[in-house]
């Protein structure tokens, strides 16, 4: 969520919108926008974040995390006998 908040802040500033203006556009409080941008809200509805991103021409998607350690299945597939 921290990256989403930073992205929303960057997009908002590029369009020279205040937090208040963005909040009014989506029926939210300025405090909610601030909380999203600063990752200080304990919970935020994904629909709110998705609506803001859609308004900026982005879509919210989920991608698998890149594992830093190999999984057991990956290790089983490795040929150690070269």
TrEMBL record:
One of its GO terms (molecular function) is DNA binding. PROSITE patterns: HTH_CROC1. InterPro entries: Cro/C1-type_HTH, Lambda_DNA-bd_dom_sf. Residues 8-63 form the HTH cro/C1-type domain. This is Transcriptional regulator.
